[in-house]
Amino acid sequence: MNSKSIHPKEFASKANKDNLFKAIDYALAFESESVRHNTQTFNNNRYRAISQIEDYEELKNRARIIKENSIRNLPFLVEKLTETIEGRGGTVFYAKDKNEAVNFIKEICLSNSVKLAVKSKSITSEEIKLNETLEKENIEVVETDLAEFILQLSKEQPSHIVAPAIHRSRESISELFKENIKTEDPLETGEELTAFASKTLREKFLGADVGITGANLISAEEGTILLVESEGNIRLTTHLPAIHIAIAGIEKIIPTRKDFGVFIELLAASATGQVLTSYTNILEPPLKAPVLNLNKRSDKERKFYLILLDNGRMAMRNDPDLKEALYCIRCSACMNVCANFQTVGGHAFGGEYYTGGIGASWAVGTTGKLEEGRFAELCTGCSRCVPNCPVRIDIPRLNTVIKNRLLELESPSLQKMFFGYFGAMAKIVSKFPSLVNYFMKLNPIKVVLKNLLGVEIEREIPEFAEHTFVELYKKRNSQKHHQGKSEKEKQKVIVFADVFINYNNPTVGINAVELLENFGIHAELSDVYDDGRAALSQGMIQYAEKKAAQTTSYLKNLIDEGYDVIVIEPSVLTMLRNDYKKLLKDDKLYDVIKEKCYDLFEYLNMKIEKGDINIDLIKKNIRFTGEKIFYHGHCQLKSIGLGNEAPEFYRKLGINVEVSTQECCGMAGSFGYKKHYYKISKSLGLSLWEQIKNKFGSKEGIVILASGISCREQLKSFSEKKEKVYHPVEYLNRLISGK
Predict the structure, then answer these.
(1) Which residue of 95, 431, 519, 539 could cross-link 404, Cys pair, CB 3.0 to 4.6 Å?
(2) How far apart are the first and last CA of the chain?
(3) More confidently predicted of 108 and 488
(4) DSSP label at 156?
C-alpha cells in the first residue's frame, strides 16, 4: 500500500452505516493481503504454543475466575490499590471520564515543564486522545513501539491490538520513513527498518522529560504493574525519565501479584504464539533507581502517577450483558482466529480505537453510544473466538446483544426480517416451491431483492426442495415393510427436522436416516421446529428466545422418553449445545438438551467406541474408487469441539481425508448473501478454494465434503462442475450404494 493511501479518517468511526461499508471496500482493496498473512501467522503460532501447555484449559479456568472476582470486587480493589501506591509515595488519580484523565495528565506535564514525552503502546491513552491534548500544549509526544511509531508518522489508526501496523507491508513502511525522516539508508529489509527506527527513537529516549505507559495488569495488594513487550522500549520509557505516568483502565486491577503468572503464560501464547513475551516487566513504582537526568534536567527524585480510568467501565460492570467484556486481557486471539478480521482487519472491523469482535463492546461502553458498535455486524456468530479466548469470553453473544439493541433503537430492517424469520417464510414457500424457485432465478426479481432486501445479485439463492424432509421420510417409511426390529434397532434415536434441512436439503436428512439404518439403528423423525438460529444471527434475541423455549420443550419430552437426538445441521447443533445456555436461562434444562443432542458422526463414533455398533457392517460394503477427498469443517462445529468427527469416521473406514485449515468458509449463513458483505464472503471462499487447488491441483476426481449447508453453497459457487461437493453422509452413502 502506498504510504499516501492512508486509511481515511472519516472511516475510523463506524457509527454511520455508509462509513462501515466504505471502510470494508477500502480494506479489501489496500490492506487485506497483509492483514490475512499476518493474522494467520499469529493464529497458527498460537495453536502450536497452546498445544505445549499441559494445563491450558485449567489455566483458562483460573484466569476466568480471577477476572470475575476482580470485576465483582472492583470498588474495593481500586481503594486498596490507591492506598498501596500512595503509601509508597506515588500519586493515584481516579478519572471518571476521558476529559478528567487527559486534563490531569496535561497538568502534570505543564507543572513539570515537560517538553518531550515518550510513550509505550497504550490503547487506553488512545481512547482518551492523550497525544492530541499534549500536542496542543506544544509538548512533543513520541510513540516508541515500532508499529505505533509507524502509525504516528502515517497518521493512521491502529488496525490490531498487538500489531497495530499489521496492515502495512515492508515496502510501504520503507517509503513512509523516507518521506518523513531524512536518511540515506536503503531501508530495504526488516532489519534495516528496525535498526533505523531504533536509532531514531534512541535520541528521543535520551531527551525525554516524562515516560508514559499503559499497564497489562496491576495488583492491588502490592501495587505492582505488569507490562509485557517485544522491543524493550517500555523499559527505557519507565527507567530513563524521572517521571513515569501510567494510564490503566480500572478493569486491569486484580487482587495480588501471585496471579500474574497465570496471565503471563496465557497472554504470550494467545497473542503471538510465544512461550514468553520477549520482555516481561514487573514494576513497583515509584522506582528506587537513581535519577539519571540524561535529558539535562535537574530532577532530584522519581515521581510516579497512576491514572485509573473509568470512562464507562463501571457502567459496563453494572450491565449484565456487557460486563463480560471487562474480562478481556487484550491478547488479540479473537482477532487472529476470526475469518472476517483476517480479511479486512481493524480499520473495517473496528471502531476508532477498539477493534475486532471484542471491540464493539468496548466502543459502546467507553463512548456511551450504541451506534459506535455498529461494526458488530461483521461478527457472524461463527464462535471460533470462544474456545480461543484465554478468559472464555462469549464474544459472539456480546455482539448479538449490540445488534439487538441497535434493532430496538432503529427497528428491524426488511433485510433482517427476511433472514431472521426464515423458518416462517420457508413454511409458506414449501407449499409452492417450483414457482418460488423459478421466480428467484429471474433478473428482475434479483434486482428487487437487492434494492429492497440488500441481497447480493451475484449470489444464487438456494432452491427450496420439491418435497420436504418430513414428506420424503413419510413416503419412504410407507414403502418399507419392517418384519420386526433387531435389538440394535430398538435404540431410540430421532433425527431432528430443523428448518434448513427440512425445506432446503431434505436429501441430506434422508441419507442420515439410511446410514443409521445401515448400522441397524431405526431412526425416527421429529416434528419440524425452528431452533431460532436464523433470528439470533440477525440480533433478534427475544424471538430467538421464544423459538428456543418451544424447541426445548419439544426435545425435552423426546429425551425423557429415552431418545437420543441426532442434529444434522452444524449451526443448529451449536445453537442447542452453546447458545441455548443463555437463551433458556435454565441451566438444568439446558444441560438435558446439551447432553442428549449429537452430531451424526459424533454419535456413530461414540457408538463404535462403546462397541454398540460394528464398523465392519459398513466397511465391507464400501466401493471406494480412490477419489481425492477434501473436508472443510464447519466453523461452529469446530467451536464445540466436533470439527473432525466426519473425517475421523472416514478414516475408520480406511479412507484418507485432507482437512481444511481455514477457520470459516466465509458464507456464515445469511452473511454471504448480504450485498455489503458479499466481497468479504467471496474473498474468504476464494482463499479456501485456493487451499483445495494447492492441495490437489485442478485435476478431475476431487470430492469436497462440508457439513454445513452454507459451506456447501459457498464451495459450489467456485466449483467448475469437475469437483463434486457433498455432505459427508451423502458421499458415504454413494460409496455404499455404488452410485
Answers:
(1) 539
(2) 51
(3) 108
(4) -
Query: What pLDDT, on a 0 to 100 scale, did the predictor assign at position 15?
Result: 54
Which cell numbers in the block locate residue 704? 469436497
Residues 142 and 202 in one domain: yes
Phi, psi of 306 (to 5 degrees): -115, 120
Count the domains in the chain: 3
Residue 130 resides in a domain = yes
* Sheet of 523-529, strand order: 523-529, 493-498, 564-567, 597-599
Q: Is the peptide bond before 286 cis (omega within 30 degrees of 0)?
A: yes
Assess if residue 375 is contained within a domain: no
- Whether residues 17 and 77 share a domain: the answer is yes
Residue 397 near residue 650 (C-beta atoms within 8 A): no
Residue 638 lies in a domain: yes
- pLDDT (mean) for 64-85: 98
Residue 3 lies in a domain: no
Given 266, 281, 313, which residue is the final one in a domain?
Answer: 313
Print the domain residue range for 304: 9-313
* The dihedral sign for the CA sequence 385, 386, 389, 395: positive
Do the bridges between strand 224-229 and strand 279-283 make them parallel or antiparallel, or are there none, so unpaired? antiparallel
Asked whether residue 563 falls in the same domain as residue 673, the answer is no
Provide the pLDDT for residue 419. Answer: 96
Cα–Cα distance between 532 and 539 in angstroms, integer? 11
Q: Rg (Cα) of the chain, in Å, rounded?
A: 28
Alpha helices in 31-55 (DSSP H): 32-51
pTM for this prediction: 0.94
> One-letter amino acid identity for 501?
I
**Segment (H or E) for 493:** strand 493-498
Residues 177 and 272 grouped into a single domain? yes
C-alpha cell belonging to residue 296: 539535562
Please count the residues of the chain: 739
The Cβ-side half-sphere exposure at 610, using a 13 Å CA radius, reads 8
Question: From the CB of residue 451, how many other CB atoms can be counted at a distance below 10 Å?
Answer: 11
| Closest C-alpha to 571, from 340, 378, 383 | 383
Written as nine digits, the cell of 242 is 524521572
Q: 667: which DSSP letter?
A: -
If asked whether residues 575 and 691 sit together in one domain, one would say no
State the Cα–Cα distance between residues 273 and 269, nearest whole angstrom: 4
- The predicted-structure confidence for 367-384, as pLDDT tens digits, reads as follows 999 999 999 999 999 999
CATH of the domain at 189: 3.40.50.10420
The answer to whether residues 502 and 574 belong to one domain is yes
Q: Distance (Å, rounded) from C-alpha 234 to C-alpha 586?
A: 47
Residue 16 · residue 165 · CB < 8 Å:
no
